[in-house]
Amino acid sequence: MGGAAVQPLGATGSPPIRIEDITFVSWNVHVGSGDVRAFVSDLRKGDLAGGRKVGHYVLLLQEAVRTDGVPALAENAAGAGRIDAHRDAASADILQIARELGLSLVYVPSMRNGGSDADPPEDRGNAILSTLPLSDLVAVELPGERQRRVVIIAHAETVSVGAVHLDALGSGSRRLWVFWTPWLREVQVRSMASRLPDGPLVIGGDLNTWHGRGERAVRFLDRLQDATPVSVDRPGLSLRVLDYLFFRTGKDRRAHYRQVGHRYGSDHSPLVGWVE
After folding, report:
1. Domain map of the chain by residue range?
2. Which of 42, 66, 101, 197 could form a disulfide with 160 if both were Cys (CB 3.0 to 4.6 A apart)?
């Protein structure tokens, strides 16, 4: 499948960045369908952060796609079922997006997008894009049954950040998927806990929690917040919540995040968060 893609962003020599200076985004871009360029343009205008000025930002993306430089499908190798999202393959490539926007990038493929020689060479996984240099990459392969999942964690100058995508379904007829997968998701988040770094931490992800915020995977990650108060602006009843931001920044700070109304071509809405 090929290893991680890392595109560093050179240091600017400016004063140290505070966590309060960074805007955090979690977004499932639906196999590259989300228009990251348009989203970033609106984010930088301040339209998506409740009027808050946006300088530095970190994007924690799920289902990012790599279309350039993907190794040929090896003999007897398996791939996930191909998802043909409505987008141009070249414009969806996460490496190209990072280069165009001048962002530091960490991308780790979780699975190939398609398991046939006839499928275009693509893989998909989590990505972190940032206006700040990214370092200290950690990739954690999660236990699972149906699809390979890899959590990625990196350090962005003053805070560690992570992108997470958990399983939606189990492996088949051996169990009732709806009742089995909440337990599996809890196992997945617990398996990565020992790899999480100390200090300030922001995690964004699509947890696929079809039972909502009451699932044990969410409650486990909530406990990692170290008593940081969090305010959430999410329209509707929020009965089936899939996407989250988690903050561990200490008791002396408050975190906020809001769900953006526009999906920018994805099937998920971006979450935009910050710390005060």
Report:
1. 18-275
2. 197
| CATH entry 2.40.50.100 includes domain 18-275 | no
Six token digits for residue 56: 């530095």
DSSP letter assigned to residue 200: S
What is the SS3 assignment for 27?
strand
Helices 216-223, 177-193: inter-axial angle, 10-degree rounding: 20
Q: pLDDT tens digit string along 28-72?
A: 999 899 999 999 999 999 889 888 889 999 999 999 998 877 676
Instruction: Please give the angle made by the CA atoms of 59, 63 and 67, to the nearest 5 degrees.
Output: 100
- Could you give the 3-state DSSP secondary structure of residue 263? coil
Residue 93 DSSP label: B
- Are the beta carbons of 105 and 5 closer than 8 angstroms? yes
The pTM score is 0.88
Q: Which two tokens stand for residue 68?
A: 């350039």
Q: Which of 135-149, 177-191, 229-243, 255-269 ranks highest by mean pLDDT?
A: 255-269
